[in-house]
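Worked example 4.2. Below are the chains of a multi-component assembly; read each line carefully before continuing.
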Amino acid sequence: MTVHALEAARRLAPRFAARAAEHDRDGSFPVEDFRDLREAGLFGLMVPPALGGMGATFAEYAAVATELARGNGATALVFNMHASVTGALGAVTEELAEALGVPDEALAARDRLLKAAAQGSWYAVAMSERGAGARLSQLSTVYEATDDGWHLKGSKTFCSGAGHADGYLVAARSSADQSVVSQFLVTAGDGLTVEPTWDALGMRATSSHDLHLDVAVPADRLLGGVEGLALVVAQLMPHWLVASYAAVYVGVARAAIDAAAEHLNARNLAGLPAVRARLGRADAATAAAELVMAEAARRVDDAPGDAETNRWVWRAKLLAGTTAAEVAASMLEAAGTSATRRGHPLERLYRDARCGSLHPATSDVCADWLGIAALGGDPDRDGSAPRW
Amino acid sequence: MTVHALEAARRLAPRFAARAAEHDRDGSFPVEDFRDLREAGLFGLMVPPALGGMGATFAEYAAVATELARGNGATALVFNMHASVTGALGAVTEELAEALGVPDEALAARDRLLKAAAQGSWYAVAMSERGAGARLSQLSTVYEATDDGWHLKGSKTFCSGAGHADGYLVAARSSADQSVVSQFLVTAGDGLTVEPTWDALGMRATSSHDLHLDVAVPADRLLGGVEGLALVVAQLMPHWLVASYAAVYVGVARAAIDAAAEHLNARNLAGLPAVRARLGRADAATAAAELVMAEAARRVDDAPGDAETNRWVWRAKLLAGTTAAEVAASMLEAAGTSATRRGHPLERLYRDARCGSLHPATSDVCADWLGIAALGGDPDRDGSAPRW
Amino acid sequence: MTVHALEAARRLAPRFAARAAEHDRDGSFPVEDFRDLREAGLFGLMVPPALGGMGATFAEYAAVATELARGNGATALVFNMHASVTGALGAVTEELAEALGVPDEALAARDRLLKAAAQGSWYAVAMSERGAGARLSQLSTVYEATDDGWHLKGSKTFCSGAGHADGYLVAARSSADQSVVSQFLVTAGDGLTVEPTWDALGMRATSSHDLHLDVAVPADRLLGGVEGLALVVAQLMPHWLVASYAAVYVGVARAAIDAAAEHLNARNLAGLPAVRARLGRADAATAAAELVMAEAARRVDDAPGDAETNRWVWRAKLLAGTTAAEVAASMLEAAGTSATRRGHPLERLYRDARCGSLHPATSDVCADWLGIAALGGDPDRDGSAPRW
Amino acid sequence: MTVHALEAARRLAPRFAARAAEHDRDGSFPVEDFRDLREAGLFGLMVPPALGGMGATFAEYAAVATELARGNGATALVFNMHASVTGALGAVTEELAEALGVPDEALAARDRLLKAAAQGSWYAVAMSERGAGARLSQLSTVYEATDDGWHLKGSKTFCSGAGHADGYLVAARSSADQSVVSQFLVTAGDGLTVEPTWDALGMRATSSHDLHLDVAVPADRLLGGVEGLALVVAQLMPHWLVASYAAVYVGVARAAIDAAAEHLNARNLAGLPAVRARLGRADAATAAAELVMAEAARRVDDAPGDAETNRWVWRAKLLAGTTAAEVAASMLEAAGTSATRRGHPLERLYRDARCGSLHPATSDVCADWLGIAALGGDPDRDGSAPRW
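Applying the procedure described above to all four chains together yields the following structure tokens:
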């Protein structure tokens, strides 16, 4: 699949780039970008071929996400959420399903969701909450069983794609047992209210609004068919909660270098030694972050959730976030005041790039975990805060 | 005067801060801030007491500018332009006037401009041009003598306060002799057209629009009364073209630390070691930049334009610009995603702070000049580009 | 005094520099440097004029120490220990003595020590111990009262000047009451054994060997004449335990720039843009560190031990240590491989400079304390470890 | 071969590490390390199997060099010179030989040199000269034809392994035609004089002494059998002149992290947040440098000398050099003063690590070349200095 999907991403990136300034300015959702993604079949990127998708590996996803982000980081960031949902659903093998006690009908329901994705539906993630952040163990959204399914009630924040997705992956806590956290796939429609709170420094086109839920869902929308799987899945697939961001910010860093080179060449400033030094160091740092991302992704495919895989995931997250921010800041400085005008790609990229280190796990948290591991410890056990 | 002006600045800063988010969002000029400045008498800050002003030193200016910038960097940046004009005019001593061949009527005209400032007028600077940047030697705006004065024609860019100032300091080239560059004080009114081009990453409230001139001015508006003084004055008072920015960015850096501390304390996050390390290093760097600014300012007062004074001016510009950008980026990272929402002070400060290194002389240029000087060379002679 | 002492320091620095390579290579004590210091009367720098000394302020000390360090950082570091002892003794005013309950005979004893210094004696500090580091609260060296004085027993490490000083300030714990820590001035001679353990990366000429004590001292050698004053004095005069190092490393950073400039000019490499950028940024950073050191010193003189004074002390320590290390590393890179030959000043300065951040309080600790203070906390209360 | 050679390297590294402190202290050559390398057959690493060697790829070399450097960077650096000679000789294919006009007897002579290496001989490189540095175009060592071969006369510097190698690759200029630079393989023995000048900050065990030549060599020792090939080969195989260093410094960086972790765990300091942050960031940076090195090496094997390959080579050189220096400095700061005692691995690694950026092409030069390439230029054409 790689070739096809990667070519599609490369073909779409310039279109995304051409629309990026407008969506950034208005904070509007890149609806056309998502139409393009649908038409290119990319909503099925992580869906197994048997269900009509491309069956991409995580490494293939990462390469696609980086290319999309060279066009518009915000689009790639929302797409990353859909890829996370479909990727995690698709990664539940029969063995794992059996080990977790997932009933057959839940697997069938899962297949229906994935088929729909391959046919053009896309899903957002409604996990974070004000106060709790992205920590599953701190959620206040609750659910309870009803006669014919489940009722969910609560409020989510930072829900990228809110109001545009066809469905939402919602994490909630059982009202019967506070320690049980489950995930549901809630179809867009009645019972969901988008509160347009997203108006941020960067990644402005993600529509990461608040989402209020007071909604009934059918029984089969409990993912896995068994309550309490949310934390288990987080432990098994941390890459989808951490590393998938990293691929986006590698693309943002690369886009900043490209934009600076174009700007400087257009003004005949390529001969300035200080400018060359800035571009050279940015190029090396970005190339390094890209390789670390690729290595992390390769290992995710080989041994998801392993301790060594997780170290690479944290390295990728740390380096992509810090590199994007530093590179964009340096490229803007190389390009000079004329590149700070709104509508200039570097003006947007400087803001977008700052967000990478802030997504969970933050750069400071990744550095702490990596340090613990380098000292022979275990971040799960020795960290100062619960990882999820 | 210090006490009075500095107290006024400290009193006004919180008011400016309260209005900053709105002006940043809309890119609107902080009209009320300037009314406050007028009422506090601060337009007369650099005007000699004999002409009704406060007669501040450059060091006193720097302290005032830093305080104003803790409220709103954009307001302080525009105020800095007025201070530059009045400060440079006020610094022309009788000895200097005689040495430059400034006629008595020009000194009288100068006094009228300064008196007007003390009474509440303020001036903007219209120097930069698209293509030429801030280099006096590259300007394309021209002037020619008329029967009763001068006619100026051309276009300026990055004219902070355009459309709001009472007068503009305009640099132009003689149409009779390309090598002659002079400066005029042009009163707001007919013949000046503001093109609202300013819509930038940071310092959005400065209204640094383009200004088109096709305007006749009276004979006495040629500053100094003698043509060709612009480059001479630039050589004599480089601090007004370089260091005055630095004081603003010291205030921006300090504001970022203050905002981060308030944000983190409100969320009970002050105990996180990574957060404390970020604030501690930011505090030390900002304190250092502030001292370097104060030292540069003190030397400007003692020996303006001296080689050693200029080194301090470049150090102040370099450190204030790089420190503000690095501190704001780190404080935003310490505060986390919730501080990236528009309207949050750190969101604005992160953008404002990036602009300091880009004002001329840029950080890279200052580093080059300082390096030449450290190696025993002379930036005027050994630099790779003309300084003005 | 400033003028005299500062001139003397400037006169001596080149002599120290000429001897520095040899002492660095052999790890030998700069005996001639100390003879020069004695002859210049600098052992009396901190001694009140009434007792025959120069009565220097802390700020004057700092300026002298920086100049000496431009010659040889190791010599300045040992001198700093003597200045700490005499400075702290001299700073005990009659009011403080009364408040602490210091008897008259102790003041007389103190005066004898200071007079001896003014006449050419110098003192080292024997505080740190293996395991305890520099924490007074963790010492294992003990003392007990004898019929005619005190008996001290224990082992010290990092005792700069061991084997060369005329006396040693020794901190010890009472064998009768573990919570009581006192300080003694022990004359060189029997009962003291120097174990030559000092063979380190940098500051090799300090002879910071281990010192084993099993020694009887007269009654009047208990400083202050009252047991248990050590921690009180540490609280009152933290600058002598922290900031005095900083002045040395400012001098080391400046020496590195000077050496790089000389090296590059001799090879006609001053025109390389990358070299100029390195020197320019190093110059600005070093100038900033020097100002912060001067400001901290000024405040120490005005309000020793105050919370705001202490913040400046930590800023000075943090910036001097990090700046020296970064500047020396960059200057060596600017100068290139030929400057890595042993005997080249930059080769030594690169090693010496790394030590500044490691002296207590380390750079990381200073950053933590400054962060706590910036967040409105109190390092004494909120720090993760006891400050002394 | 990878497995065998890599396993051998891993087996030898701890032995090298155990001897490293002594050779560093004395500046003595690690004779036993080289005996171990010979016995493990590693002198034949780059020799084609047909000639008795292991036939390693460049990527395999890089992995081996990194492992050796985790034991002792100095040993790895000298080994790198031998690998460069044998690797470059072995890389001359029949097609290339024909294109360059290499006669059959020269290929036979080449094969004899490689066979000797496989049987236990090793070669050093004598290229750099005082004044010229490593620039082939600036050499002053000359050669002239004699009746039965060549006579070489001149002086080399930084000749790693001088006095210990079995042969030396010597670059020299034709006395008949200054523009012709050729390379000879000179056997150790009469006519070569080692002047023990190497006494440096780091990599002290390399014996990179001066080598004076006044020596006759047989006709077949002109490499390639044709004069004037030196610059051609430099253009074709820049990786052997640049990237091979990088692999060594990746190993040095990793060794510093390992040493810091061991030191901190032994002192129960692994729980300090500042320490963990330092180790975490060092780990990520080193992992990135290692991947960039591996990618560069892979591309060298696929398309040696290609423009894109060269970019990766410069990235590897830049990142390995800067990462090693920064990581070692940070690890020493994490470990604290006790790690600065001579004999402690971190004390040596801090000095060794600083050398990586200084080897040609220096970090600043690599950054310049990468910047030119990122801006669409060609470093050969647009650089400010000749590349060789």
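Take a moment to check your reading of the output against the notes. The mean pLDDT of chain A is 93. Residues 2-122 of chain A form a domain with the Butyryl-Coa Dehydrogenase, subunit A; domain 1 fold (CATH 1.10.540.10).
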